[in-house]
Amino acid sequence: MVKHQPLQVYERQLCLSCITGIYGCRWKRYQRSHDDTTKWELLWSFILLFTFCLLLVWFYFWWEAHNDYSEFNWFLYNRSGEWSDGTVPILATTAAGFTYISFLMVLALCHIALRQQLNLHWLHKIGVTAALLTTIVGVISVNQTWGQEWDIVPISLQATGPFLHIGALAAVTALSWIVAGQVARTEKTKFQVVVMVLYLSVLLGLYVVPVYITSPCIMDPTTLRTRPNVIGHHGAPMLAPENTLWSFQRALQMNVTGFETDVVVSLDGVPFLMHDRTLRRTTDIGKVFPDRQMEEASFFNWTDLQQLNAGQWFLKNDPFWTVHTLSSNEKHLIANQSVCSLEQLLKLASYHNSSVIFRLSRPPLEHPRYQSWINDTLQAVQQSGVPQSLVMWTPDEYRAQVRQLAPGLVQASVEKLSPQTLHQHGIRRLLLRYNQASTQEIRDYSESQINLTLYTVNEPWLYSVLWCSGVSSVSSEAPNILKKVPYPIWLMRPDEYRLMWVSADLISFAVVIGIFIFQRYRMSGMRSYNPEQIMLSAAVRRSSRDINVMKEKLIFSGQPQ
To answer: Signal sequence span per UniProt (predicted)?
Structure first.
């Protein structure tokens, strides 16, 4: 005779198994626990949280630094000597790491909500450690090589701050469901007080943080100044190779009002356009003069420079990922570009009544034009026939001499000076990087009749912020993009912003109070139970189509017949 002991059955919880299995490799019911998380695992939870916050800042930094990707690649080129888009591997690893850590954070929150013990698997611990160390190394590297770029974070917050605040408030409000559940379940008063104090501190901080959010775009629209002029930084380098005639012609098609460039004086005294110290990046010097690749650009005469092709590198390297948008005719024009002289640029500017501002590099001491570089440049200006009022002169050396020889030139500076100092030196134009002037300083320069140009402005959000600040002009590598920005991306009256702020706070407060009341009511009327509670044999009679039955124990015992 065979006797059966009553079967023990339970309903499978696939979602819970996946949560605990992916997070801590606890796929089986008996592996899970409702005990308090150990101190060691709590430490790893804090490490995970810190890694998430650090990666969030790192991800935001690179998202907003899109305005300066070309500058970053140029820095890398100067250090390595080889051109490549260094932002691609950084963006790929940052996106992958942030996605992975965010996923672990969601799983950890699910554990807390389901009262499961946190137990991060050792493989995930290795992954979190790798993500943390990689991000720290990246932050240190940026500080050493590109430290000025961190200024993009507070500047970008002027455009994103009000909306990031709403997003953060929504996230913390949603988190109240988990917090309220934990407070309602626990019987430890000390734990309840600590959790409530921490949560309410964060929540109240978010309620008042708009007091410290400032943006020039929170203003009366009637006081908005005219649209800033756009100046082509090296022409239109997203559409054509930089500092070539075709690049400047393309910039004119994008409605720029002027050009910004860099000028070097050749061995025989011809000023020409070149941004780099050598000719390796933007010409085919490795093919024409392979033994002279590392020579400074100023040690070539104009005849040699005319033999170089200044466009094929653009088609090959595709520095802005835009070559695929060009027509075959445009590619043909690009492939036949040569080094452009200052005189050629000035003639083009004169024909289109466009202004030109350039940085002039003095040749090395052993250069034959070391003493005559100013006169060589002034001679090129005069020979071009351009009205002197269209030329912005930036070199500080021999400025008095320049005023005597060419009094019509507009005196400009690339050094940040006070409006009073600029007026004392007779300087009416100032060219600065966009992070060198605050909103208040921009307005001070404007009130002092100083024409301020900020470079390099490629993103619509940055252009909008500077527009609201009152800047008169910007220098851009992307005039084709800024052409599509006829008005600031967003503009909000101060009273409208206050209404949005107060409304969001009140809605959040009401939702949080409602969630806490509901969770307390829900927990007070609920018996403490195990979500995977074992059910006895009575459930065996239910159809297998309704529940999955696991046989925990089947005892066979036999008796002699």
So the answer is: none
Amino acid at site 76 = L
Q: Do both 318 and 465 map to the same domain?
A: yes
Total number of domains constituting the chain: 2
Q: Is 446 exposed, middle or buried (0-12, 13-18, 19+ CB in 10 A)?
A: middle
Q: Is residue 205 part of a domain?
A: yes
CA distance readout (Å), 288 to 134, 292, 469: 42, 9, 48
- List the structure tokens of 259: 């050009």
Torsion angle defined by CA atoms of residues 242, 246, 247 and 249, in that order, rounded to the nearest 10 degrees: 160
Question: Same structural domain for residues 90 and 57?
Answer: yes
* Residues 240 and 194 reside in one and the same domain: no
Q: pTM here? A: 0.88
| pLDDT class of 528 with cuts at 50, 70, 90 | very low
Q: What residues does 118 pair with on adjacent strands? A: none
Instruction: Assess contact for 426 and 411: CB atoms under 8 A.
Output: yes
Residue 529 pLDDT level (bands cut at 50, 70, 90) = very low
For residues 250 and 292, state if they share a domain. yes
Contact at 8 Å (CB) between 66 and 320? Answer: no
The reply to whether 141 and 87 lie within a common domain is: yes
Whether residues 273 and 200 fall in one domain: no
Range of the domain at 125: 14-212
Last residue of a domain, one of 453, 483, 513: 483
Domain boundary residue among 439, 464, 483?
483
pLDDT in tens, 449-488: 999 999 999 999 999 999 999 999 999 999 999 999 999 9
Does 398 fall in a domain?
yes
Phi–psi pair at 172, nearest 5 degrees: -70, -35
Average pLDDT in the chain: 90
Question: From residue 135, how far is each of 52, 60, 410, 543 by CA, in Å?
Answer: 10, 13, 46, 54
Residue 228's nearest CA partner among 492, 466, 489, 432 is: 466
Do you find a cis peptide bond into 456, omega within 30 degrees of 0?
A: yes
Give the torsion sign (CA, 462, 464, 469, 473): positive
Examine residue 422 and state whether it is found in any structural domain, yes or no. yes
304 and 407 inside one domain: yes
Output b/e per residue, 85-105; b: 16+ Cβ within 10 A.
Answer: bbbeebbeebeebbebbeebb
Q: Would you place residue 114 in the very low, low, confident or very high pLDDT band (cuts 50, 70, 90)?
A: confident
**In terms of Cα–Cα distance, which of 182, 310, 290 is closest to 245?**
310
C-beta of residue 279 within 8 angstroms of C-beta of residue 297: yes
What is the C-alpha separation between 476 and 469, in angstroms, rounded?
17
